[in-house]
Write the structure tokens for this entry.
Amino acid sequence: MGKALIIGAGGVASVCIHKCCQNPDVFEEICIASRTKSKCDALKEKLDGGKTKISTAQVNADNVDELIALINEFKPDVVVNLALPYQDLTIMDACLATKVNYVDTANYEPLDTAKFEYKWQWAYRERFEKAGITALLGSGFDPGVTGVFSAYAMKHHFDEINYIDILDCNAGDHGYPFATNFNPEINIREVSAKGSYIEDGKWVETEPMEIKRVYNFPEIGEKDMYLLHHEELESLALNIKGIKRIRFFMTFGQSYLTHLKCLENVGMTSIEPIDFEGKKIVPLQFLKAVLPDPASLGPRTKGKTNIGCIFIGKKDGKEKKYYLYNVCDHEECYKEVGSQAVSYTTGVPAMIGAAMLLTGKWNKPGVHNIEEFDPDPFMDDLNKFGLPWKESFDPELVD
């Protein structure tokens, strides 16, 4: 069916590549590219021999000219950006220059400030449309599947959706006193930023971790969760009809929060450069270097994740409640692809989003968030490729 260039070779990329190889009728050929080519070669060695042809390349995703040269050499039908969010715009620039479709899992954020919003990528809308190519933003789980869930709920269950609560629970235990389940720099920037939610068309800002709720998650049980800012709130508030309030909650254990507070108190989560032995270093980047690599957590993580959306809205003039979610087992993910569930729940949707573009099931030139497309084929592939969804029509609500 087509060729995909996958930029990145970390935990999420590894899952995505495994899943591309499980879908060879769509992914006839893939090229794995990263700054560290040895990581790409290791993935190729692990997965070579199937129907999907695999090649590797070295590329600096901060360098537009290098990206353009690689795209021109490999000639992919889609570029799947699983590098860092800081590199979204350089990769989009390269896709524009070569007229190739683009997929990512997280919005662009500048290095010098923890700012999670779509304005930089939405500014590319007209250019992508004129070039006749599609940029699919946020094809992970949250953002990603949560947007597809919202579009599915709107299409099949509601005339309007007034309230959405996105709940992200990771009940996995990796045994470390403190570690992050995805890129430490991105994770800590996200968690230590001010919280916010949208109500009546306006952003309401909170202090970091100020709002706490306890929720009884199916197949997991009661967990503490905290209100965070998350990028999909911005796009869902625009694209889902009838929104009055939309919030995002994520669970954290007490050990994680205690360690994070200590690190904040001594300045280790700062993104402001400091002088150290005659060099400029960013404390958060140094902290990332000493923390466990998230890709190493797979063999030691036990437990489950539960990520989903609770919807309240109207159907035929009556109030309706609906809960759509996925439960994923860390140990089962590791058995299948060698990664823990946090990487799995992001890598699988990245593959599906790319497949939607390669098969032409989604075809809309411009820059689009995932909820702007027909959710049904994506929902079918979630069941097919390892993230089966479940639903409840009488959910416990978040106050």
Q: What stands out?
A: The longest strand covers residues 304-315. The longest helix spans residues 341-358.
